[in-house]
Amino acid sequence: VIDPYREIEIGTVGVADADLVDAAVTEAGRSLAAWSATAPATRADILDRTADLLEQRGAEIAATVSAEMGMPITLAAATQRDLPVSVLRSMAAATRAFAWSENIDGAVLHRVPAGIVAAITPWNMPVHQIVAKVAAALAAGCTVVLKPAEATPFDAELIRSCFIDAGVPAQGFAIVNGDGPTTGAALSAHPGLAHVSFTGSVRGGQAVARAAAGALTRTTLELGGKSPAVVLADADLATVIPKVFGSGLVNSGQACNATTRLILPAAHAGRIEELLVAAAGAARLGDPADPSTTHGPLASRIQTDRVLEHIATARESGARFVIGTGETEPSRGSDCFIAPIVLADLPPDAAAVREEIFGPVLVIQYYDDEAQAITLANDCQYGLSAEVWSGSTDHARAVAGELEVGQVKVNGVRTRMRPAVPFGGLKRSGYGRELGAVGLAEFTEIKAVMS
Ligand code: NAI
Ligand code: MG
């Protein structure tokens, strides 16, 4: 495991083979009967205690994520401590309020735990992604085997300790470390599982769904996107443009729902580009451990090279560089720094317009009228998320209704403010939902008793 800022090894983990994976699934199976028999209120209390422990240990957890993948410490505290704390508390509340049984047409419909759940998670928002899956699965009465990303195994150990110390049985939440092709593949093919919940690349998700199909194991796939930020002509540009710049480049663009396509009114292009340049001037690239840093290095040299390749392709397609050059900036402290880039004038079929880059690269698509803005937003193979910005909430909601995505955020609403709202996508962004009661239901099975 390499710290991408200091470019030093911070530790090593093994790669679990199929036998170790099988042992972990077998253990999770042994504790399933006892855990699934606990009262939902007991499980809710344990999630609340986990939230308390995560809050207490949050500084160490945020610092660990920051060292593993270069996330600025201020962002890590907000998204890898505060956000998962809210998710745990909202999942506890959802567990208490959940319709564990209801009457339908003279039958009693019971929601029962699905069984053993595998969670396979990426490195970009590692604690949040683990908690979103594990909290919901445990709330449902399932036991869990987690395979965290090979780049970020240490935060996973810390968050697991919070769950165990809060009262989850040690065998009820196991971790298997390792890479995708070895450990992830063995886990998703394991016949003892009820459900695999995966977040990562489209290729990884396809491999998981294929492997899981062998045992007809259900899957949830959260596969990223190329999400649009639609700024309507009645928006207050001076306030909105810096915020749109910020949400597209959160975590240096390494976020599945980063709004990396800016759908903007052509009539105001000049003013918008001035505001974007000013916003870029306020970005602070540097040591992730410095609380004033807004942009850290990319998570690894491999990720940096992938992004550089995307930028080179965009240049060949005739991109105009509104901001940035697309070179690495080793003077910032490591070879993994790329300063924010905003591109314009790309043809609609250019790779930079259509493919997820997972780096600090935003693409402007100018529109002449609102119908064209909606067409541009929907002309996309992904459908995870979108933002709409307008001076009128009703106007923004009307446009939100036209967008082909799983979630729309109006005027800067954040997941942190609404941790129980379902998250997940359509099209190549995958299927299934996480968070809140909908995310809990994902890990249940329906049993109908007619009498
Ligand atoms: P990845 O999809 O390879 O890795 C994500 C997780 O899946 C890791 O835990 C990995 O070990 C596991 N995995 C990979 N292949 C697997 C397989 N065949 N079977 C089971 N598990 C498997 O993503 P990677 O290589 O880290 O990043 C590549 C690109 O994927 C990024 O540039 C980005 O575009 C996208 N991505 C999207 C994410 C999202 O939040 N939706 C998160 C991470 C990456
Ligand atoms: Mg990979």
Can you offer a commentary on this structure?
It is a single chain. This protein is of the alpha/beta class and 451 residues long. The protein is built from 16 helices and 20 strands. It has helices at residues 18-30, 32-36, 40-56, 58-69, 73-97, 126-139, 153-166, 180-188, 202-213, 237-248, 269-281, 301-316, 351-354, 370-378, 393-400, 436-441, and strands spanning 2-3, 8-9, 101-104, 107-113, 116-120, 143-147, 173-175, 195-199, 218-222, 228-231, 261-265, 320-323, 341-344, 361-367, 382-383, 385-389, 407-410, 426-427, 430-431, 444-450. The protein has a seven-stranded mixed sheet, with helices on both faces. A six-stranded mixed sheet has the order 7-6-5-8-9-19, sandwiched between helices. β6 (143-147), α7 (153-166) and β7 (173-175) form a beta-alpha-beta unit. α5 packs parallel to α6 (126-139). The termini are far apart. The model has no long low-confidence stretch (mean pLDDT 97). Bound molecules: 1,4-dihydronicotinamide adenine dinucleotide and magnesium ion. Residues 120-122, 124, 147, 149-150, 179-181, 184-185, 188, 199-201, 204, 207-208, 222-224, 256, 306, 356, 358 line the site of 1,4-dihydronicotinamide adenine dinucleotide (NAI).
Going by helix content, strand content and strand pairing, the class is alpha/beta
| Integer-rounded radius of gyration | 22 Å
* DSSP, total strands: 20
Residue-averaged pLDDT: 97
Determine the strand fraction and express it as a percent band: 15-25%
Question: Which ligands accompany this protein?
Answer: 1,4-dihydronicotinamide adenine dinucleotide, magnesium ion
Count of discrete alpha- or pi-helical segments spanning 4 or more residues:
16
Pick out the low-confidence regions. none
| Order of neighbouring strands in the sheet with most strands | 12-13-14-11-10-16-17
User: Mind summarizing the main beta sheet?
Assistant: 7 strands, mixed
Helix content class: 40-55%
Which overall shape is indicated by the principal axes computed on the Cα atoms? globular
Query: In angstroms, what separates the terminal alpha carbons?
Result: 57 Å
